Each structure stands twice: as C-alpha cells, then as structure tokens.
C-alpha cells in the first residue's frame, strides 16, 4: 500500500512559463470553454510540448486560462498560460501548437511570461457585434439611448432561473460602423473567412466548398450595422448577449437573425477607452534580453524546421 | 441515389444551419471540424456513403465501427464517406421550421443526396432515431416507396442480426464485420452506376442480395400460422438466397483501423482512443449476444497493437488508450502487451485501460502496468450473477473466491473504488439469487478494508435488466416482467442498507425494468413490430435510449394499437417462452451458430451445466468455424514490444 506521502506520478518542476494569445474563429466559435481546454491539452501532447504536470493520482498539465469568450462568440484575443519542464522558444511553440490545433483555433502570439499575472493585465474587452439586416442608423439610435441611460437592467436566463443584471456600468464606449455583409450567412466577415475554409481542408485534399458557397447566386448582400463596444469586466460579467438585450430594453431593437459577436481585444483600460496589450510588458523584457541568452538547443530546433 | 444529380454540385446546408445553432443546446456537436475528419470533393467521387450512428453525437462519435468504415471508404480515391448523427429535439424542431434537411457533420451535405445511408445499430433503441433521420432527410420511411433518387438505407451493427422490426424501413442489412462488406457493396454500386443504373433500384438491390451476404428484407415474404407464430420466411424472387450469412474479417493485423481516430471538439462518452486487441469471444456467456455472433476469436498481434497505439496517439493526442475487446484480459499476450506499452509510455502521462475485464483473467501485475503511467481510474468487473447457481446458468464461470482475491489485491495496490456489474431478470432467477449480490458486495468491502487497512474504500454495484437476444442460447427464454425485476431490486436495496457499517460504502446503480422490456420487444420482434416503431415515432418517440425521452406508456399504447389486432402483443413477444420447433424471426439470417447447438446449450443452462472455452479446451461444435470457413486466430506469438521514442518525440518543441 502507498502511504499518503508517497505520491504517484512525480513530475519534473516547471522551468518556464509561456503566454499565448489565440483566436476562436468561424464555426469553432460554438465550442465551449471546456471543449477548448480539452482540444488544447490534446494538441499540446500532439505537438510534443514538454508540459509540466501536477502531482497525484490524476496528474493534469499545467495550463491556466484567463477568462473565456462564451459559447457561440468568436474571439481574436483569448489568453492562456502554459508551464513546461524544459525551456522552449516561444515562436517555435506557437507554430507547433498552431499546427496541432484544429483549424479555427489559431495561436496568434506567444511570449515568455514576465512578472505578475496575466489576469491583472486584463480588465476590459473590445467586442465587435454584427447585426445582419439591422440598418446602421437604427443601431446608432439604439446605442445613443443605451449610452444616455444611467442603468439598463436586463434579464438573463441562467441554470437556476432568471437573473437581472445592470449592463450600463460595464459599458465604457460604443460606436457603430456600417459594412457590406453577406446575409446568406451570419458568419462571413474578413475575420472568419479563413476559418470557414477549414470545412473542406481537413485532409488538404479539396478546399473549394466555401468558395463555391460564396459564389452562390442566392447569397444576398446588404449593408448592416456593426456595434463596436468596449466592456469592462465586472462580476457578473456582461456578455455580448447582455449588450444586445440592453439595446432591446432601451430601444426595442430585436435582431431579425442572430447577431454574431467577436472579441477583438482584451487588456487593461488606459485613461480613455483604449486597451493596453497584456503582452506589452513581457515583450519589453524580451527586447531587453541580450542576444544569445536563449537556450542554444532551441535555436537548433528552429533551424531544423 | 445521385443518378439525377450527376454533375450537379451538392450544396452545404451550413449557412442555413448556422443561424439555428445559437438557439440550441451544445451547438458544437453539429459543426464537425473534428481532428482527422475528411472532406472530399463531391464531384470527383462516384460512390458516396453517409454513415450514421443513430444516437446523439456524444455517444455516436467514439463508435469504432463508424470510424473504421469511414476511413476504409475514404481511402478509396473515387469514394466519399461522411457522418451523421441523431439531432436533439430542439434542433429537430428548428430544422423542420426552417426546412433544413438531415445533414452530415463533415461537409454539411444533405443526407438524401448520398448513394448509401449506412446505419450502425449497436442497440435496438435507436430504431426511432432512424425514422427521424429518414424523415428529416426527405427519404420515404418505407423502403418500397423509394426511387433511384434516394439512398440505399443499409443497416449494420449487432442489432442487424435481427433487422425484422425495421424490415420495412431499411433496404438492406449486413450481418457481421463491415470492413470487406462495405468494399464489396461499393464495387457493386459503382459498376451499376457506371453501366447507367440498369434495372433501377431493384436491380442493384438484387445484385447485392446475390452475394449472399446482404439481406434485402423486401425480397423475402413472411408467412404466419393462425396462432401468430411464423410459418416460414422465403425469398419472393429468383437470384436471392434462402439464407444470408454473416461476414467475418480474418487477420486483424491486415485491418489496422482506425489509423487516424477522430477527435471531437465536443465532449463525448469516451474521452480516449481505442485499439481493438481482438474480436470475438468464446467464453460462452449465454446472455451475451456479442460473444455469440462475433465468433471465432481473432487476436491482433502484439506488434500490430503497438503500432496502432503509437500511430493513434500521434494522430490524436489522447492521454488514455483503451485496449478494447469483449474481454480484454483474455488476450493470449495481455501481460506482454500491457508491460510493453507501459514501458514505452513511461513518464508521458499516458494511461492504459481495459474497458472489459474478467475477474479471473485479471491479476495485480496487470493492474499495476495499467496504472503505471497515468491515472488510476476505478476498476470494473462483471460477475453478472450474484449466486454460484445463477452463474452456472449463464455460464459466467467466475467464483466468488476469485473475485475477492482480485479486488483485495486491487485495494491493497491503492485502488479505492471497484465497480461490479450484475444482471437482474435472468432465466430461472429467484429472489435469493439477486439478494446474493448484496452479500457479495459486503464481502468485497470487508476484504478490501482488511487488504488496504482503510475504511473509506468503495464498491459500486451496477445492475442492468436482462434482455434475451437473438442468436443466443437464451433466444427461447421468457423475459422477466419488469414488475418482478423492480421488486427484486427493491429487496436488494433493502439488503444492502440493512447493514449500515458496510452498506454505507456500497453504492447501487440501476434503472427500472421497463426500458428493458421494450428493448426485448425490439430484439426478438418480427416485421409486425415495425408498425409499433412507426407508431411510437409518429406519437413523438425520440431518443429512446435516453431516460428523459423514453416513454414506456407510449410504447405500451402503440403495442395495444398495432399488435393486438394481429393477435399478438407486447407480452407475446417478450415474456412468452418459445418452443424448440418455433420458427424464429431471424432463422434465415445465419450467424454460423448451429441452432441445435444453441438449443442444447439452452437445455444445459436450465440444467445448470457449464460450457468451457474452446480456446483452451476442445471444440464444442457451436458450428461457426465450419459454417463460415473460419478458425480461431490466437497467440501467443512469443514476441515483445521494442522500446521506442514516445509520442511527440520528433517534435520541434521536444
């Protein structure tokens, strides 16, 4: 029998912490945070990343998440931290992990972690919410009403019944753009186009389905309103759905087809409504590091690629 | 079929589906995009298969049968295979409202556009899901109403050994292993299409029937006796054989599938990759349809297993490998396999599991190899019967002392939780047989506390209702009425709780006996039961394998409406014992088992006589090998696994 002291599965200690920014695009926006966490863990294994593990009967790779866009919401700015038992070059990690992840979960940046936590560098998000078939003028009026209000309580359907939440305090800034959108699909924007093509490219054999769909003569185009909104992260979190509900409350705005939201940016609010890149501090440290300090073996590995 | 669509592209329904997804639960299950999924160009293929597992995505995706056929078919340059699963009622309602047809998850193509819709039935409770999919696909429910514009609806899987309850809804059924069958069917369809589809749908179905290995229900007539029993089942045209034989894939090493297992984004019921280490089982448990219809035993070699594990882990990144079979510890080289794999994956946090393990074949060395590199999950054993007597009846020859010895060793080695599976409602069963389960569980706790020196160990007893299945010695047995099953389970619970000191460490999991009775109706039903399936479906029956959707009353009502005017009933099909001379609905479907041997084994069961395993004792003439031209393929080979660089070894970040 094992004593309590003799823990099974000893793991080597972590020697390096890396931070990643990744995107959740196209149809992959329907993944939940748990789905993404599982996909990441498997991809880290497939990519051969020398992960650090927790101890005990159920060892888990050391991966920590910072927030997560809700199921159904796309994002260009999700953040995660991983710990490894041997030093790796951040850019090599980024490429290897991106190749191992399903298309639509795309690793965009990797940095070695500097001091402090990632969580303390993030307190707001910038969202882009596309509202097909909603004219920009109509949307602009609704947004003006939202910004003019002092409180905008909305109902949210939770597992344990309806909850009321005030959206207004979370809204830092909002503006309305107008763009040409293909209304045969709510997902078609420049940002999602590349991810949608994953539909036909899994084996790399054929990649012309989505193009064919784009050329579909039945597709119609119209100008539609796009809401760009900076939302402060409060507890409970105000999500894009809540912002839309708020537009319903203040201006009876009901999108005729489901809106699509994309998180464009996360970071710390500056004095105005701009967000400071969470990696800015980490990158500054790397820039200051003397050339040749990084592990020589890593350089060789990169060269081999 | 796509006869009328040649040269016309089939559009993805995704744009229409996508607007519905924000309104349904777990939308990720409908978007596809799994790692290792394949999407091919529609127009550059000739024969197109849609493979369906008729249950929710989370259950269907890990299915090995579908994954194997998906890969084998997609490896052919002019063949395309995609997958579809049962949609939940929330999406079904929206699809009907917005005219979105049943779609594949790979390229979201409409199911109705494929040449073949192959449906793998692991359980009969998926029958109503077939009707939902057909209806959503715009395919007529009844095979006889279909034209060359519709796919050939083909049933496979274990339930296809008696497809009579769905005979009206399927065009064809294949019994047994699918690897070679799908290739032959593909060849026949390809040739017929290249010839310009001579003779239409009837001709291609006749060509399939002529092989002797594809059953076309429509080409057989069933005649009944005045008392409701079947008089005979006969072909109603030339070129169609009297009996249809099952398919057997020999030499598993030649079929190392799946090579690239699918990895879903959504959570599924099996969060691991699986390697089938052997197929077939000759333990001879009399209740076990799988063990009867998959004979003979065919082992994959130790090197074949090692290569599949390596390739699979590289392709998936899973952290657990299930060594799959009907009784995995029975592989002739299981010790070498588990040790070899544990050595290879030392230090990689890769767990091994044997999902199905016999108590007597298990030992503590095996347990330690299994837990060396990964998580120590619970151990599960299946004594199936509580008393020695009932275990002789069902031919599950494990002794209580074997069980106690094994679980003691497991608790001593650090496991805290042991799960035991039993059945209730077995032939000849008495209350006392079931109450013995409580005694056995308490013995396990006592022995476990002593072996581990701890009080907090647990034992969970999980009890399923027994359902008599076709092609087993119990195919003649009367199914136990759900009221009796429920009463015995109530007594068992009281017996477990009677002793608080031990009972608090014993968990008990069971369901009421009613779904089992309906499964029994569908398992041993004939074509008349098809009316019940359709009635239930029309009355709203969906996802019958899920307790929150299953309605016993709906099935009982449908049986009254549809069967009683024909002079038969739910009870007639389930709780009635059959006689030796009765023609069974599946007698014309040949599993290789000699019906006389099955009857003799049934009589042995009633006499509490055991039957040995032909892997270690002489052949007992079940009939399969001579009838099918097959033979047992087992080791030991005496070979071992060589060390290798584990998964990710040649990675740039290694």
Structural class call of chain A reads alpha+beta
The radius of gyration of chain A is 22 Å
Give me the strand/helix succession of chain A.
EHEEHEEHEEEHHEHEEHH
Question: N- to C-terminal separation of chain B?
Answer: 50 Å
Number of domains of chain A: 2
The helix count of chain B comes to 22
The tally of beta strands of chain B, per DSSP, is 18
Number of discrete helical segments of chain A: 8
In CATH's first tier, which class of the domain at 3-223 in chain B applies?
Alpha Beta
Q: Report strand % of chain A.
A: 25-35%
Q: How many strands, what sense, and barrel or not for the largest sheet of chain B? A: 5 strands, parallel
Largest sheet of chain A: 9 strands, mixed
Oligomer: heterodimer
SSE class of chain B: alpha/beta
Helix content of chain A: 25-40%
The greatest interface here is:
A-B, 63 and 58 residues
Mean pLDDT of chain A: 80
Total strand segments of chain A: 11
Overview of this protein structure:
The complex is a heterodimer of chains A (305) and B (654). Chain A is an alpha+beta fold. Chain A has 2 domains: 16-121 and 278-304, 2-Layer Sandwich (Alpha-Beta Plaits), CATH 3.30.70.580; 124-200 and 208-271, no CATH class. Chain A contains 8 helices and 11 strands. In chain A, the strands form 2 sheets. In chain A, strands 1, 2, 3, 4, 5, 8, 9, 10 and 11 form a 9-stranded mixed sheet that branches. In chain A, strands 6-7 form a two-stranded antiparallel ribbon. The N and C termini of chain A lie far apart (47 Å). Chain B is an alpha/beta fold and 654 residues long. Among the domains of chain B are: 3-223, Cobalamin-binding domain (Rossmann fold); 272-376 and 592-654, Transcription Regulator spoIIAA (2-Layer Sandwich), CATH 3.30.750. Helices cover 34% and strands 13% of the residues of chain B. Chain B has a 5-stranded parallel sheet with strand order 2-1-3-4-5, sandwiched between helices. In chain B, helix 10 (334-344) links the parallel strand 12 and strand 13 (351-353). The radius of gyration of chain B is 25 Å and the shape is globular. Mean pLDDT of chain B is 93; it is low at 1-8. The chains are: A alpha+beta (305), B alpha/beta (654). At the A-B interface, helix 1, helix 2, helix 5 and helix 8 of A face helix 1 and helix 9 of B.
